[in-house]
Structures are given as structure tokens and as C-alpha cells.
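User: Some background: our group keeps a shared notebook of sequences we're curious about, and every so often someone picks one and asks for a predicted structure to add to the entry. Today it's my turn. The entry only has the sequence so far, pasted here. Could you supply the structure so I can complete it?
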Amino acid sequence: MKQDMIVILDLGSEENARLAREIRALGVYSEIHPHDITLEELKALPGVKGVILNGGPNRVVDGVEIDVSRDIYNYEAPVLLADHKGDKPWPADDAERKTALSNFVFGVCGAEANWNMDNFIADQVELIRQQVGDKKVLLALSGGVDSSVVAALLIKAIGKQLTCVHVNHGLLRKGEPEQVVKVFRDEMDANLVYVDAVDRFLDKLSGVADPEQKRKLIGAEFIRVFEEEARKLCGIQFLGQGTIYPDIIESGTKTVKAVKSHHNVGGLPEDLDFALVEPLKMLFKDEVRACGKALGLPDAMVYRQPFPGPGLGVRCLGAITRDRLEAVRESDAILREEFARNGLEGKVWQYFTAIPDIKSVGVRDNRRADEWCVIIRAVNTVDAMTATVENVPFELLQHITGRITAEVKGVNRVLFDLTPKPTGTIEWE
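Assistant: Of course. Here's the predicted structure to add to the notebook entry:
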């Protein structure tokens, strides 16, 4: 890596990610490392211009206060103690904090603001080529932001040495499988294996109402399909994955308990024996999107809304039926189209429709009709831990209701979910 870097050593702070993001916002690359890194390991990191010892309330492990090796205090680059042993150099106010951080990064460390996507992409292309050589890479391409950006980066680096497998399980939003084929096979000339597994998945899910059981079935079946396709290919030695930096941070360090464990295409049989290629593993989500833009991916893919792994399977509430699943897909498409048309596409963090397995009486063509109801959910959040409901104009809701009840077969009511998180969750299942 050719960029200058500021290293953050984790001494129990809960703000490691925030600090790393603030440094990167200044145009300087930053990474978080554990407190027990050795001086030799620190010296082996490329382009280090300064070190921040980032302390906090968790700096006691097993009853012992942790610290870095004494050698690191005498490191050749500047070392700053941040919120460690009572020293708090970072003010709470954002403007003052930015000034203090800028003074350290540029004034004290002499770092250059050379962290940008063009340099990142050039570095990763070089690193991927060094790692892979003339071997082949396999990638599960879901169409989500992370896998799509990994695919575009690998295509740039190794071209036809990459094979992408897109499994259509029938639970994607309207137009998404077609978009994957159009962008990667037609426009980027990638080796793309398209697997139509819709019937296979929906048959497996028939009669299954429990949300957790649905999730497990979908995940397990995906792995089986992907494994079958992998065994058809010869000479694959590497598996591409869309691991990103929050995945690594949330998986925990020696001083912070894991928020959750992360794995992308986890659970593959050991005899497939792939080495991992994870070119995005040091990027935050907004940086992944910036990388996708720089690689020429369409906005609809780069700014794709958060979407649960089981897809529409957890928005077709209860046991999935094909007709109700199609109603979810069509109503969701109408909602997304109207939000985009009315300036809400980039304003609202997440919006979707869900359909419970209940019917109510209504009137259709002057006759009694027992049909489903569509629930609209539109929320804003910073960290997905809490969420507020978007104040969607009533006239727009009336218009969307009119379209859904007129255009979506089997639906006679539209409801708007007013519940924040907590007490509700973002998804219904």
C-alpha cells in the first residue's frame, strides 16, 4: 500500500471505528490493531506515520489493566495517548475534535492526504494479482453491494480468471436477478454462472412458517447449490468474499466483546479447500459504495438498500406461498418506484412492504373479496440499533395505496407501520 497510515491500537475504547473513520475523512488511511501488537509487527505495517493508543472503559482484561509493549512508546513515529489513564486529548465537540485530530495527523505526524479510492483500487488490483497469480477465483454474487463491488474489483484485476455464481432463489426484489446478468455478463463480460433455483427453494420452504427455520433452510440450501456449482468447475483455488471492515470490528478484539460473528459464504465443505480473497476487508460501508462508483457500477447497485439475507422470504410473513410472494415483490416495486419519483429514495434509510398470512373482506368489481393486506415500512436509522419512522406525506400514501390495490393481484388493503425501534424491529420477521 502506497498511502500513509495512522495506526490505532485498541486499549478498550468503544470509539475505535469512529476514530478510524475520522482519520480517513481527513484523507489519511487508518487501521485498528490489538493492543498486544509487537514492535516488529508494527514496523512491518506499510506507511505508518503515527500511532494512537486509544483507551477506554474496557482496558481491564481478567482483572489486569492492559497496555502496549513499552517498546511501542519509543516507536520511531509519533505516539499519542488518547483517553488513556486519564489523558483525554479529544474534545467532545466535533469541530474541536477534528481540529485536534488534524493537528496530530498532519502537524505532528506529517502524513499526506493520499487516501482515496483511485489509490485504493490500484493497490488492491496489484495485491490481488500477487495473491492469485494465474489461478482461478470463485465468487458467490448475490447482487448486494459488497459482493457486486468485490466482483467488479476482481474483474478489473484478473478478468476471466474469476467465475461468478449467481443463485436466483426466487426471494430477490423485482428486476434484481436480471440486473446482475445485465451488468456483469453483458456489460462487464464476466464469467457468470446463473442458477435458476427458484422452484428448488420454494419447494423446500413450502409450509414453513417459523422465521428462524426459514432463515436456516434458505442459508443451508444456498450453500448446497453453491457447492454443487463449485464442484462443476475445474482449477478453482480461491474464494472471493465480500467481508468489510465492520464485519471484522464487530467480530471483536481482545478488549471488546464480539457484537456478532460474521461469515459470508460460510459452511462450505472443507474438501473444497479454497483460500480467501477479501479485497474490501479494510473498507467501511460508505467506502465500499465509493469504490463501487469508482469502478463504474450503476447507482441502483451501489446504493442498493439494506436487504436481509433471506430476502423477501422474511417479508412474506408466515408460510411462503408463490402468489403472496409475488404480491410482496410487486408491491415493493411500486413503493420503491414512488419513493424514487417523490424524492424519498436517498432520504429514507430503508423502506419495503410485507404481507402477513391473513385476509380481510373487501370489495372487488362490486363483489365481496377476501384478500391480503400490504404493510408499508419506512424507517431511518444511524446504527440499526434504534430507528424512527419516516413522516411520509399522506397524499403520497394515498397514491401508493391506490396503485397497490389496483395493480397487485390479491391485495385489498394497505397499512402503514408507525412503530419505531424499539418497540418494533426494522423487519417484521
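Suggested note for the entry: The longest helix spans residues 211-232. The two ends are 43 Å apart (CA to CA).
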